[in-house]
């Protein structure tokens, strides 16, 4: 059996675990996700790894090195999904890490540093509205008081969901490794966008991860009859929301040289009807960039537009910041080494930023971190038709293997 066939079998085994009939649904702290996690732990044990699950539900599978007092090198991603997801997001990174271990075992390579395969818990925000909980716990950023009572669509709190699998929210802080020395973390991930495919590149070497600022905006006008209210006497909340959305698009395009994007992803018309001029509309806005300055220019313009639209359309507009995170830059040394590996292997690559968040953005706070992308066909992600060619995944695993071998040498240094 060649490595591609072996990897495909591993990949397929993981994706057996799902609920529903459309795509893959394996949301965090559910029976399907926990069954998948237990299966993955058995696969790791079969490769001779020492396995433990921390207090947040992260799986840590360790391969001892020649010098076990040296700080470990970590690699991995996540197994949980959004609702009706595809097969690749997160899974590629976890299975790729195990495949690297299989290759090291097959070749009889003993690394100087210990190697750990990580499967992070609750990377997706689909169930509780917060993301990357497992990696936040690992780096000491888990705020139990903030997330304890978050509820899923069935009214189950995060605290209750954890307890169903013998995990206690008051103990999650013990998962922190912030006082432990770790040499590096590597994550292989599908791009979740169209850049690599459109550029005909096989590897994305990520330099930074954009961070979002998010707003909830309520636009209040006057509900009135659509047939009896003249156009010049209306206070239409939906048109006000539409103007805000279009202006947001305009300013984001002016900032796109910085990789800045802005999205109105939620629009709700309260008590909407075909024959009623909308009186109240709520929108949620996501603005993200790796440039704080560029992102702030878009935010400033948003506030100006809100004020202008409120005055000119006689609307009352309220805005509230929901979240604001800092973008992160990844290890320059790892970026350079990844470029060297791709060049030596004649793999076409792109140096790029990530617009999506990943566990890697938290791990930066713990150790030097590298993030490698493989192409997503048509840029689809969080969708049942999400797809990445197996040959592209294998190239990504080749690069990951070379990075692990290079940095697992005692004399290797990451600045």
TrEMBL record:
Keywords from the named record: Hydrolase, Metal-binding, Zinc
Name this protein carries in UniProt: N-carbamoyl-L-amino-acid hydrolase
The residues that hold allantoate are 214, 275, 288
Report the SUPFAM superfamilies cross-referenced here.
Bacterial exopeptidase dimerisation domain, Zn-dependent exopeptidases
Protein residues bound to Zn(2+) 2: 89, 124, 382
Q: How is the cofactor bound?
A: Binds 2 Zn(2+) ions per subunit.
What Pfam families has UniProt attached to this entry?
Answer: M20_dimer (PF07687), Peptidase_M20 (PF01546)
Query: The organism sits in which domain of life?
Result: Bacteria
GO MF terms listed in the record are: hydrolase activity, acting on carbon-nitrogen (but not peptide) bonds, in linear amidines; metal ion binding
What CDD domains does the database record attribute to this sequence?
M20_bAS
Residues recorded as binding Zn(2+) 1, renumbered to this chain, are 78, 89, 189
The text of the family note is: Belongs to the peptidase M20 family.
Segments forming domain Peptidase M20 dimerisation: 215-307
Matching entries from PROSITE patterns are given as:
ARGE_DAPE_CPG2_1
List cofactor names only. Answer: Zn(2+)
- InterPro entries tied to this protein: Amidase_Cbmase (IPR010158), ArgE/DapE_CS (IPR001261), Bact_exopeptidase_dim_dom (IPR036264), Peptidase_M20 (IPR002933), Peptidase_M20_dimer (IPR011650)
């Amino acid at each position: 059996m060649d490595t591609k066939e072996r990897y495909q079998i591993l990949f397929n085994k993981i994706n057996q675990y799902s609920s529903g009939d459309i795509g893959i649904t394996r949301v965090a702290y559910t029976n399907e996700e926990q069954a998948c996690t237990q299966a993955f732990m058995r696969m790791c044990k079969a490769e001779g790894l020492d396995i433990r699950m921390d207090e947040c539900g992260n799986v840590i599978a360790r391969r001892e090195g020649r010098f076990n007092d040296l700080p470990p090198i970590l690699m991995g991603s996540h197994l949980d999904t959004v609702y009706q997801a595809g097969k690749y997001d997160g899974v590629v990174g976890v299975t790729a890490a195990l495949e690297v271990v299989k290759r090291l075992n097959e070749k009889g390579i003993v690394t100087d540093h210990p190697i750990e395969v990580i499967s992070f818990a609750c990377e997706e925000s689909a169930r509780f509205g917060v993301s990357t909980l497992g990696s936040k716990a690992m780096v000491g950023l888990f705020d139990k008081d903030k997330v304890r009572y978050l509820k899923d669509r069935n009214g189950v709190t995060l605290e209750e969901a954890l307890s169903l699998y013998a995990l206690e929210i008051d103990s999650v802080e013990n998962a922190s490794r912030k006082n432990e020395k770790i040499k590096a973390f590597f994550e292989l991930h599908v791009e979740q966008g169209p850049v690599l495919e459109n550029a005909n590149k096989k590897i994305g070497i990520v330099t930074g991860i954009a961070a979002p600022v998010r707003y909830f905006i309520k636009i209040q006008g006057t509900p009135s009859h659509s047939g009896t209210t003249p156009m010049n006497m209306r206070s239409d909340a939906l048109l006000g929301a539409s103007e805000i959305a279009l202006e947001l698009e305009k300013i984001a395009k002016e900032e796109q040289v910085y990789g800045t994007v802005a999205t109105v992803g939620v629009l709700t018309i309260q008590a909407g009807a075909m024959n009623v001029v909308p009186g109240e509309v709520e929108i949620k806005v996501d603005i993200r960039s790796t440039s704080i300055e560029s992102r702030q220019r878009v935010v400033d313009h948003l506030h100006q537009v809100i004020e202008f639209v409120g005055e000119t359309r006689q609307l009352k507009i309220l805005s509230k910041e929901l979240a604001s995170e800092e973008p992160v830059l990844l290890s320059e040394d790892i970026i350079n080494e990844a470029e060297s590996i791709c060049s030596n292997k004649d793999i076409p690559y792109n140096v790029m930023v990530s617009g999506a968040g990943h566990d890697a953005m938290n791990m930066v706070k713990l150790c030097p971190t590298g993030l490698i992308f493989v192409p997503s066909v048509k840029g689809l992600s969080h969708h049942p038709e999400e797809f990445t060619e197996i040959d592209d995944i294998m190239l990504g695993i080749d690069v990951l293997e070379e990075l692990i071998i290079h940095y697992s040498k005692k004399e290797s240094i990451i600045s």
